[in-house]
Design a protein that fits this description.
The complex is a heterodimer of chains A (264) and B (378).
Chain A: E1 3-8, E2 11-13, E3 34-36, H1 38-54, E4 56-63, H2 69-78, E5 82-86, H3 96-109, E6 115-119, H4 130-138, E7 142-152, E8 156-162, E9 167-172, E10 176-180, H5 192-198, E11 204-206, H6 247-260
Parallel strand pairs in A: 1-4, 1-6, 4-5, 5-11, 6-10, 7-10
Antiparallel strand pairs in A: 2-3, 7-8, 8-9
Helix pairs in contact in A: 2-5, 3-4
Chain B: H1 7-24, H2 28-34, H3 39-47, H4 66-79, H5 81-100, H6 103-109, E1 118-121, E2 137-141, E3 144-155, E4 162-170, E5 173-180, E6 186-191, E7 202-213, E8 217-218, H7 224-260, E9 262-263, E10 266-267, H8 272-300, H9 306-331, H10 343-350, H11 359-377
Parallel strand pairs in B: 1-4
Antiparallel strand pairs in B: 2-3, 3-7, 4-5, 5-8, 6-7, 9-10
Helix pairs in contact in B: 1-4, 4-5, 4-7, 4-8, 5-7, 7-8, 7-9, 8-9, 9-10, 9-11
Classes of the chains: A alpha/beta (264), B alpha+beta (378).
Chain lengths: 264, 378
């Protein structure tokens, strides 16, 4: 059986370059130089390995402004077959609920999808909510924080969830939504040949008119989350203390400093 | 960076930086010490398509141009100059197959160049630059060529499996043949014990009555000098990129060290004598980069690039050597120690004044071009 796998990916800001809209408290995404959310690379790798085993296709799906295209092409350069960008001003300001809703509507439009993979969370917002929300809108089982995925695409699969102090094995049938931990695999590099070919592929752009969406559930309007306060991290130079004297004196001073900083 | 990279070149650059940071940088000093590449590193190089970077897509490669390949060589050289040197030897050889081989030979060998290393072989034990003084020859018998002789100082010699070989086809003619290590009569010889670029083998090959068909001739009879020159000019862009990479490596080491080394309670970056050295290294890097990128840009634009490529190698080879020396001085006694990563940069950079034509030959060639240009304008 061949699998139709959708991987939802996100472009995140380079972590030392965050800007926040003072009104909406959302990240300002336009014009920034972004990178693919690191956990999404693990989700892509998982999808490509399943494709290698079972055949089929891997479709990338992302929601964001036009400059997310580079991240989608990077995913195709890793070996994904196709990419769709959900992009419209109407989608702007979406929280995790509105994002999950639009992603789910796009997945429904793709027809028979067997598996949806996402990174366990994005490194900008760190909510881990989008995967579960997509699964709820699709009405499919969700298995989150997965570190191992085995089994038979048709007879049933087994996922190992890696949680704080325990592992949990879950058997499930497709279709399903799985969020992937970095422990699952080592993502492959995009290859030079695939990079070239990714720029010859067309990225489909879908807006609210391309999807069957309720206008009240998308963008800022469809986002019940209220962010009271958020701030960009303050860049501070690392404070370095050079300890002087003999090794014994330096160790004594180190202990004093560590106690003073509540590290001991 | 002077050249505006295309989007695909930017993505390639990011990929090469990720790959080299993770897979190559940690092995830099091990490669120097072991005088070899770990086998698994080469497997990764092949699996990730680096050998096919410049090979057209119809032959299974990526089809990137010399702007991208020189950027890639630079990115490797920042982490390990030998890896960059090995890629340089491969790319220039593949380029000659691409430009001069028959369609049949391209069909057969270019797909192989995605996973087999190619080398270019010109120098003989009795001389390098005086190609017409060579003795290795090809003699035609019926519709076959019989190849005999030995070649030395081959970049990737022993590591490469397919060679472009310059051979005398008459007392006044040099021609280029494609020779495969699998051919009866082919033997690899000894590897040179060089002081630097220790990952890259430089060695010799022996040809004893190797029989090849007519289509193993690259270009036409007597075109060997032209092909050799083209290979050298291509290589000199890459040598500029390697020089800039070594210089950037030296800059990083010098700045990192100077920031954390204190004298009288303040980092030595505040000392003019250190700032001067860091400045010299930084200028050398920018200058070298501008030269090799300009040569690459000219080549892509279909313009004459030989002079600027030769300048990139000539200037870059001296500037990178001086930069590594400056970095050593910034580190003081530690810089002279084999426990620190600077000394091998000096040994690596020194190779650039010899490989792909001696520094003296570069000077003669640049002078001739510059003087001829002025005569034409009078």
């Amino acid at each position: 059986m061949s699998l139709k796998i959708v991987v939802c990916i996100k472009q995140v800001p380079v972590s030392n370059n965050l800007k926040i809209d003072p009104i909406t408290k959302n990240l300002i995404r336009s014009g920034e130089s972004g990178v693919m959310n690191p956990y999404d690379k693990n989700a892509i790798e998982a999808a490509l390995r399943l494709k290698d085993e079972w055949g089929g296709e891997v479709i990338l799906l992302s929601m964001g402004p036009a400059d997310f295209e580079m991240t989608l092409r990077q995913g195709m350069a890793m070996g994904c077959d196709d990419a769709i960008l959900l992009s419209s001003r109407k989608f702007g300001g979406a929280d995790t609920l509105a994002t999950g809703y639009v992603l789910a509507q796009a997945i429904k439009k793709l027809g028979k999808v067997d598996l949806v993979l996402l990174g366990r969370q994005s490194v900008d917002a760190d909510t881990s909510q989008v995967g579960p929300i997509v699964s709820e809108f699709l009405g499919w089982p969700q298995i989150t924080f997965v570190s191992e995925l085995t089994g038979h695409a048709k007879k049933g699969m087994t996922a190992t969830r890696l949680l704080e102090n325990m592992q949990q094995k879950i058997e499930f049938q497709l279709p399903a939504v799985v969020t992937v931990r970095s422990e699952m695999n080592e993502p492959r590099y995009p290859t030079p040949r695939n990079i070239q070919q990714s720029y010859k592929k067309n990225i489909r752009i879908w807006d609210e008119n391309s999807l069957s969406v309720d206008p009240n559930r998308i963008g800022l309007k469809g986002s019940p989350t209220v962010v009271r306060s958020v701030w960009a991290p303050i860049k501070e130079a690392k404070h370095t203390i050079y300890l002087k004297g003999t090794p014994d004196e330096a160790v004594r001073e180190l202990l004093i400093q560590m106690r003073a900083s509540n590290l001991l | 960076m002077s050249i505006e990279l295309t989007q695909s070149q930017v993505m390639l650059h990011q990929m090469v930086v990720d790959f080299t940071d993770k897979e190559v940088k940690p092995l830099d000093r091990l490669i120097d010490k072991e005088r070899n590449y770990p086998a698994e590193l080469w497997d990764k190089m092949i699996d990730n398509g680096f050998l096919g970077l410049t090979i057209p897509e119809e032959y299974g490669g990526a089809g990137f141009d010399v702007i991208a390949s020189s950027q890639t060589i630079y990115d490797f050289a920042v982490r390990n100059a030998s890896m960059a040197f090995t890629l340089e030897g491969h790319y220039k050889s593949v380029d000659q197959v691409l430009n001069y081989a028959t369609d049949e030979l391209k069909e057969k060998y270019l797909p192989q160049a995605n996973h087999r290393i190619f080398g270019f072989s010109s120098t003989e034990p009795q001389g390098g630059s005086n190609v017409m003084g060579h003795t290795a020859k090809a003699v035609k018998e019926d519709d076959k060529w019989i190849l005999n002789g030995n070649k030395t100082m081959i970049t990737n010699g022993g590591l490469a499996q397919v060679y472009c070989v310059l051979l005398k086809t008459s007392p006044t003619e040099l021609s280029c043949f494609l020779v495969d290590e699998d051919m009866p009569g082919f033997k690899h010889g000894k590897r040179e014990k060089f002081i630097g670029m220790n990952g890259t083998p430089v060695g010799e090959i022996f040809m004893e009555n190797i029989v090849v068909s007519e289509d193993h001739l690259l270009g036409k009879i007597g075109q060997g000098v032209e092909i050799g020159d083209n290979a050298h000019y291509d290589a000199r862009i890459s040598m500029g990129a390697i020089a800039a990479g070594i210089t950037e490596h030296a800059l990083t080491i010098a700045v990192d060290y100077a920031k954390q080394r204190e004298v009288k309670g303040a980092p030595i970056t505040q000392l003019y004598s250190i700032q001067e050295k860091i400045t010299e290294i930084a200028i050398a890097k920018e200058n070298t980069q501008l030269l090799y990128q300009e040569a690459a840009r000219l080549k892509v634009a279909g313009k004459s690039y030989a002079k600027v490529a030769t300048m990139a190698k000539s200037y870059g080879s001296r500037a990178s050597y001086a930069a590594a020396d400056h970095a050593l001085q910034v580190l003081g006694g530690y810089g002279y120690s084999q426990e620190y990563p600077v000394e091998h940069l000096i040994r690596d950079a020194r190779a650039l004044q010899l490989a792909e034509g001696s520094l003296e030959k570069m000077m003669i060639e640049i002078a001739k071009e510059v003087i001829d240009e002025r005569e034409e304008s009078i």
